Amino acid sequence: MMAITTVDTNAKNVSRETLLDMYAALLLKWNAKINLIGPATEAHICKRHLEDSSQLVELIPHEAKTLVDLGSGAGLPGMVIGIHRQDLSVTLVERDQRKAAFLNEVKARLELSNVEVKAVDIGSLEETYDVVTARALAPLSQLMHMAQPLMGQGATALFPKGVGADKELEEARENWDFTA
Predict the structure, then answer these.
(1) What is the pTM of this model?
(2) pLDDT value for 157
(3) Three-state secondary structure along 75-134?
(4) CB distance 80 to 108 below 8 Å
(5) Dihedrals φ, ψ of 157, to 5°?
(6) Torsion of CA 46, 48, 54, 56, to 10 degrees
């Protein structure tokens, strides 16, 4: 269990745990203004958001070089992955200017040179990536439609789902061939 403290320090040469603490503190601070996460989940930020996002890191192919997180919002899971895998070029796509400002603040405060924030619509992206992620953005069928043009050869898509995942998988399999 991580202790969330307000940290106002230079982020260079600090541990991953300290970076995650700094991120969580910024998330809680900004959440009061722009509703990045549900207020009911604030007390469980480590388990509900940080650990939930961190579990995806082990699913990313080791040879992956680029990742795009669609509809990044609070930076979940993309910012958390960027903290864990600083060897990975992480692009956070969030068209809401307020949320993009939050993501840019986190990037600057944590000095994450591997993270880029794009405040654009997903459909305007022209690059391809090794990994595509999204959390709580859309049903799986829609996510796959959004992700397909962004996926490079042999790319991996990571779309964590909760209640209703079986139904979303069933619906997505009507139009897509994939392994889950």
Answers:
(1) 0.90
(2) 96
(3) CCCHHHHHHHCCCCEEEEECCCHHHHHHHHHHHHHCCCCCEEEECCCHHHCCCCEEEEEE
(4) no
(5) -115, 130
(6) 180
Q: Which two tokens stand for residue 96?
A: 């809401």
Instruction: Give residue 73's pLDDT.
Output: 96
Average pLDDT across the chain, whole number: 91
Q: Give the contacts of 61 (CB within 8 A, at least 6 positions apart).
A: 130, 131, 156
Q: What is the pLDDT of residues 24-42, one digit of tens each?
A: 999 999 999 998 998 888 8
In degrees rounded to 5, what are phi and psi of residue 152? -75, 175
CB of 129 closer than 8 Å to CB of 155: yes
Task: Name residue, tokens 């600083």.
Answer: 86
Task: Identify the pLDDT of residue 10.
Answer: 54
pLDDT digits (tens, 9 = 90+) for 84-130: 999 999 999 999 999 999 999 999 999 999 999 999 999 999 999 99
Please state, in angstroms and rounded to a whole number, the distance separating the CA atoms of residues 133 and 160: 8
Neighbouring CB atoms inside 10 A of 118's CB total 18
Torsion-angle region of residue 131: left (phi > 0), alpha (psi -120 to 50) or beta?
beta
